[in-house]
Amino acid sequence: MAMCSILNADDIKKALDAFADEHTKFFELVGLKAKSADEVKKVFLVLDADNSGFIEEEELKFVLKGFAQNGRDLTDKETNAFLRAADKDGDGKIGIDEFAALVKE
């Protein structure tokens, strides 16, 4: 499933251009905060590249590319900050409920 079938392409571009270590602003700019729980789950499934049911650290580094092919890789600092913000149970990965909670922050 393409991300553009869930989110507006122009909003994705604006959010990618503005992303700077601030996931909450990114989710707002991309329009994800306003989406239903079902649509947030669809976005999670797109980002979960290996279909494990989790977004692991390695997948998280490429999360912006999940929104657009020309998205950049996250730096190690951004990846770690994103993981710390989302991983509420401390297992080192982001589950669907953790992702949904992070989006709605």
UniProtKB/TrEMBL annotation:
One GO cellular component, as annotated = cytoplasm
- Residues annotated as domain EF-hand: 35-70, 74-105
List UniProt keywords, sorted A-Z. Answer: Calcium, Metal-binding, Repeat
Q: What Gene Ontology terms describe what this protein does at the molecular function level?
A: calcium ion binding
Q: Which SMART domains match?
A: EFh
Residues that bind Ca(2+) 2:
91, 93
Pfam families from the entry?
Answer: EF-hand_7
Q: Superkingdom of this entry's organism?
A: Eukaryota
> Which InterPro entries does this one have?
EF-hand-dom_pair, EF_Hand_1_Ca_BS, EF_hand_dom, Parvalbumin
Annotated binding of Ca(2+) 1, by residue: 48, 50, 52, 54, 59, 87, 89, 98
General function of this protein: In muscle, parvalbumin is thought to be involved in relaxation after contraction. It binds two calcium ions.
Q: Which family does it belong to?
A: Belongs to the parvalbumin family.
Question: Know the name of this protein?
Answer: Parvalbumin
Q: From what organism does this protein derive? A: Dissostichus eleginoides
